[in-house]
Design brief:
- By secondary structure, the protein is mostly beta strands.
- The protein contains no helices and four strands.
- It has a domain of 98 residues.
- Strands 1-4-3-2 form a four-stranded antiparallel beta sheet, with no helix packed on it.
- The two termini are 35 Å apart.
- It comes from Dyadobacter chenhuakuii.
- It holds the Pfam family DUF2382.
- This is YsnF/AvaK domain-containing protein.
Length: 142
């Protein structure tokens, strides 16, 4: 405030009984914020495909059936199923009319398993996602 201003009362003498108002001024700081765009972010995703090859051992079993004719008369029926090593034998009998009834072993069925192992290659498409993030920094001047 200037001393030349009469309203302030500064440098002015008061007579008795005279009242003078002197304004007192105070400044205050007001802080505020505003939203400013400083850039942008973009997110993109793409699916990548890759063909892969994998080797695997595959086990398979094969059954061979061989019919062997026996055509012999037997006094008693043999065991219906028996095992000789890795061969399963199933006896087939029939009754034949003769002057007397007898069992005749007609045939045996021999079943043998064979195991094969082959190396095979399988093809399969695998997918994988890849994410890319980029930021546009235009407008960073604050």
């Amino acid at each position: 405030m200037s001393s030349n201003n009469d309203d302030s009362g500064i440098g002015h003498e008061f007579s008795s009984g005279e009242t003078k108002k002197i304004p007192v001024i105070e400044e205050k700081l007001v802080i505020s914020s505003k939203v400013v765009e400083t850039g942008s972010v973009s997110v993109s995703k793409k699916v990548l495909e890759e063909e892969v090859f994998a080797d695997a051992t595959v086990t398979s079993e094969e059954v061979t059936i061989e019919r062997k004719e026996i055509n012999q008369y037997v006094d008693a029926a043999p065991a219906p199923v028996r095992q000789e090593g890795d061969i399963t034998i199933i006896s087939v009998v029939k009754e034949v009319l003769v002057v007397e009834k007898r069992l005749m072993l007609v045939e045996e069925i021999h079943i043998k398993k064979h195991q094969h192992q082959d190396q095979k290659t399988y093809s399969q498409v695998l997918r994988k996602e890849e994410v890319t993030i980029s930021r546009d920094t235009s407008g960073m001047d604050i």
